[in-house]
Amino acid sequence: MSRVKGGIIAAKRRRNILKRVKGYRFSRSKKERAAREAIAHAGKYAFAHRRDKKNDFRRLWNVRINAGLDGISTTLSYSRLMGGLKKQEVALNRKMLAMLAEKYPETFARIAKRISA
After folding, report:
1. R_g over Cα of the chain
2. Are 64 and 98 in contact (CB under 8 A)?
3. CA 73 → CA 67, 68, 97, distances in Å?
């Protein structure tokens, strides 16, 4: 059986790897072994950070809701508002409340007053 050299396929594989690391710095963008490792790490970080992003947004919404409550009531805090919403079975999630607090403060104030009363 004759010998088969993998020149064309290997070059294609190398080219595809180096395409994926375009914009990386130093040897990671030029050398196949470093590029392959960089791709593996990038994938791992992307997976983890997609989950972290959800936590980051929830934290941001909490801050915006609390900031919206500052001018409305001295007794009402974020935790008391969320507890009151749950007791009264108001179906507004944190994302909606944060948007109301930022863009429609009058509506948010009415909701908060209803909870504190």
Report:
1. 26
2. yes
3. 11, 10, 16
Whether the per-residue pLDDT at 75 is higher than 90: the answer is no
CATH number of 7-116: 1.10.1900.20
Q: What is the pTM of this model?
A: 0.74
Nearest to 54 by CA among 102, 95, 98, 100: 95
CA angle (76 as vertex; 96, 94 as ends), nearest 5: 15
**Distant-in-sequence, close-in-space partners of 71: CB < 8 Å, separation ≥ 6:** 105
Mean pLDDT of 107-116: 91
- Within 8 A by CB and 6+ apart from 92, the residues are 85, 100, 111
Count the Cβ atoms, other than its own, within 10 Å of residue 61. Answer: 20
